[in-house]
Each structure stands twice: as structure tokens, then as C-alpha cells.
Automatic annotation (TrEMBL):
InterPro entries in the record: GPCR_Rhodpsn, GPCR_Rhodpsn_7TM, GPR_3/6/12_orphan
Subcellular location: Cell membrane
Domain called G-protein coupled receptors family 1 profile: residue spans: 1-207
Family stated for the protein in its record: Belongs to the G-protein coupled receptor 1 family.
A GO-annotated cellular component: plasma membrane
Membrane topology (UniProt): Multi-pass membrane protein
Protein name: GPR12 protein
Gene designation: Gpr12_0
Keywords: Cell membrane, G-protein coupled receptor, Glycoprotein, Lipoprotein, Membrane, Palmitate, Phosphoprotein, Receptor, Transducer, Transmembrane, Transmembrane helix
Keyword Lipoprotein: yes
Primary location recorded for the protein, binned into one broad class: membrane
PANTHER family on file: G-PROTEIN COUPLED RECEPTOR (PTHR22750)
Species of the source: Sterrhoptilus dennistouni
GO molecular function list: G protein-coupled receptor activity
Membrane spanning stretches: 20-40, 60-85, 105-124, 156-175, 187-209
């Protein structure tokens, strides 16, 4: 985002190659961010759906291959402005993602909304599976109902926080890409794109405050010790 801003407003006038490259870099980075979150969602779903065979199927080589494939796909999206998805020859067709055309920006925005709907569906399935597993564990270990309800509420609140943050950061920018065009002030575009870029910074903070495993690692890294409250607390399904 910083590189795109610098090319458009600090290099005057920017060359066509620089403008297309900056737009491609922005598209590739945004695509990689969304695809990474989608890949994590799919991985979580498979880890619960195929719990018995997950660790044998998800080898290091398979994971590296999937990450490489994802980045190649995102780099392909970044090349679209160079391959003709630009409005350099027709300024009236420009979108807020200049030099991407308005029609092509609409395609990207709709694609994002469909990916978000897919993530929502997968997380709903994850919620159902995790709730079913929690019930089975509660029966086996004869947990009291209040403890089980508290664990379920924590898991649902964490899930809601992750999805709510993602929606607040990304959906306004996606919808704005559908309804706005190049005649709108650029400050609106950057003010809506900035939260989207910050979403990848917010997610680790959410996990650090909600996941006890990450909290333990932070305590060890900062002070070399683990508070007694962690060692005495039983692990629950919401910690996953």
C-alpha cells in the first residue's frame, strides 16, 4: 500500500510500467493476505474433520507445496494489470484501484465476497464439529455443565471476534470497490484500504490474548516463566 501511494503521488508523473507494477504489487499482497486466511480456515476444518489422519496426510512437503501454489496464484493475480486489466488507454473506465478498470475491480470484489462466504461456511462447520467434540469429551470426563458451557462460550466468542474483525477490516473496502469509481476522492480509498492491510497485524494479537498456548510462549519469551494459573487450568476444546 505504501509503495502504491508513493508511485501514484510522489512520482509525478509516474511511468506506465511503475504504475502497473505498483498496482500489481498491491493486488498480489491483498490476494495473499485473504488466501492465507482462507488456507488457515481450510486447514482448521480438515484438522477437525479428519482428526485421525490429519497429521499423517499434512506432511511438511505437502504444506510447502500448498503455500508455494497459493503464492504463485497470488502473483498471477498481481500480473493482471500488466496483462490488460488496466485503464491507461481509457481513463473514464478506471476504478478506485487505478489503473484497474471498474469492471475488473468489481470482479475482484465479488470474488472476495464469495471467499468470505466460504470462510463463514467453513467456520460454521468447525463450530458444529468442535461443539460435538466438546460434548463427547464432557460426557467421557463427567465435566460439570457450567464448565462445559463456559468453554463453549469462549470458543464461540473467539470465533466471533476473528470473523467480526475480518469483516470490519475487509468488507467496507470490497463494497466501496463495487460502488465507487475513479472520480471519488483518493483519500476514501486509502482510508478504507488501510484497515484491510492492518487485519494481518490484528489477528496475531487476538490469538495471543485468547489462546493459552501462545500466552505460555509469550510468558516464556518475556520473563522465562509460566504463571501457576496456566499449569493448573485444564485444557478445553475452546483452546484449539
Amino acid at each position: 500500500l505504501v509503495a502504491n501511494f508513493a508511485v501514484r503521488y510522489l512520482l509525478r508523473p509516474p511511468s506506465e510500467a511503475a504504475e502497473l507494477a505498483a498496482a500489481g504489487l498491491l493486488l498480489a499482497a491483498f490476494s495473499a493476505s485473504v488466501c492465507s486466511l482462507l488456507a488457515i480456515t481450510v486447514d482448521r476444518y480438515l484438522s477437525l474433520y479428519n482428526a485421525l489422519t490429519y497429521h499423517s496426510e499434512r506432511t511438511l512437503g505437502f504444506t510447502c507445496a500448498m503455500v508455494l501454489l497459493m503464492w504463485l496464484l497470488c502473483l498471477g493475480v498481481g500480473l493482471l494489470p500488466l496483462l490488460g486489466w488496466n485503464c491507461l488507454r481509457d481513463q473514464s473506465s478506471c476504478s478506485i484501484l487505478r489503473p484497474v478498470t471498474k469492471d475488473n475491480a468489481a470482479v475482484l470484489a465479488v470474488t472476495f465476497l464469495l471467499l468470505f462466504a466460504l470462510m463463514m461456511q467453513l467456520y460454521l462447520q468447525i463450530c458444529k464439529i468442535a461443539f460435538r467434540h466438546a460434548q463427547q469429551i464432557a460426557v467421557q470426563h463427567q465435566f460439570i455443565a457450567t464448565a462445559q458451557a463456559s468453554s463453549t462460550r469462549k470458543g464461540l466468542s473467539t470465533l466471533s471476534l476473528i470473523l467480526g474483525t475480518f469483516a470490519l477490516c475487509w468488507i467496507p473496502f470490497a463494497i466501496y470497490s463495487l460502488v465507487a469509481d475513479s472520480s471519488y476522492p483518493a483519500v476514501y480509498t486509502y482510508s478504507l484500504a488501510l484497515p484491510a492491510t492492518c487485519n494481518s497485524l490484528i489477528n496475531p494479537i487476538i490469538y495471543a490474548f485468547r489462546n493459552p498456548d501462545i500466552q505460555k510462549s509469550l510468558w516464556l519469551a518475556c520473563c522465562g516463566c509460566i504463571p501457576s494459573t496456566f499449569s493448573s487450568r485444564p485444557r478445553t476444546s475452546s483452546d484449539v
